[in-house]
Design brief:
single chain, 256 residues, 7-stranded mixed sheet, 15 strands, globular, RibonucZ/Hydroxyglut_hydro, UPF0173_UPF0282_UlaG_hydrolase, Metallo-B-lactamas, MBL fold metallo-hydrolase
């Protein structure tokens, strides 16, 4: 099976390389500091491992959503404008325009591979918080990547629902690789529940998905992420899934 090379840049941002294509998840390249969002602000505590100039060109951006600066910041927007294609929610496409193409849940796009064939990108549902929080947090999507001779990859986006993980696993699984947005994000907007997977939920999701490899994203570099790499390692160990976990340092890569 075609190998996948994943480079973690920090926060929700990673480069995926497979079958001659380069993909980027949720571009965030701004410096540390406070970033306003409505009457609130999100605080970035560390910058990316690589600036956009060193990341270089990609064939497509997989953008889970555009309305929060911890998933698309100002530098990320500039990078996005130069990308040949970005796949995201209908709401993001209407706000951003340019290269952003809308995918509704279970809708597919095909990206031609340099050696022939195509990479299928299927939008899958995501819930950015507890049930009922959609009007507050907005529209979010995840992605499934698949194709003949290619590994099956799940990119969760900012999803906090294990029920949706079960639905995705039932329709699209099992998976070879899962990129799980974790960190148990919390903000005053939804004070009583996490907006992304907790560490224990991430470990449970790995089991539900049947994922042989898990690369966590979205668990550090922002102050509202309440669980980190240490808690992820503990949760996966408690679920006897340590061998599946690839906990990368910013700038590090893994071939799967």
């Amino acid at each position: 099976m075609t190998p996948v090379h994943v480079t973690y840049l920090g926060g929700p941002t990673a480069v995926l390389e497979l079958a001659g294509l380069r993909l980027l998840t949720d571009p965030t390249f701004d410096a540390p500091g406070a970033y306003p969002i409505g009457s609130r602000e999100l605080v970035r505590t560390a910058g990316p491992a690589l600036p956009p100039t060193e990341v270089g060109a990609v064939d497509a951006v997989l953008l889970s959503h555009d309305q929060h600066p911890d998933n698309l910041d100002r530098s990320g927007r500039t990078y996005l404008e130069r990308a040949p294609l970005a796949l995201s929610t209908p709401a993001a496409a209407s706000r951003l325009g340019g290269p952003v193409r809308a995918l509704t849940p279970w809708q597919r796009a095909e990206l031609p591979l340099p050696g022939g064939g195509a990479l299928r990108v299927t939008a899958v549902p995501a819930l950015h918080g507890p049930p009922g929080s959609e009007p507050l947090v907005g529209e979010v999507t995840g992605f499934v990547l698949s194709g003949d001779g290619l590994p099956r990859i799940y990119v969760s986006g900012d999803n906090a629902s294990l029920g949706l993980v079960r639905e995705i696993a039932g329709r699209e699984g099992p998976f070879d690789i899962a990129l799980l947005f974790a960190g148990a994000a919390r903000t005053p907007l939804v004070p009583d529940a996490p907006l992304t997977l907790t560490s224990e939920q991430a470990a449970e999701a790995a089991g539900i998905l049947g994922a042989r490899h898990v690369v966590p994203l979205h668990f550090e570099h922002w102050a509202h992420f309440t669980e980190d790499g240490t808690s992820l390692a503990k949760a996966f160990a408690g679920a006897a899934l340590t061998d599946r976990l690839h906990l990368l340092s910013p700038g590090a890569s893994v071939s799967l």
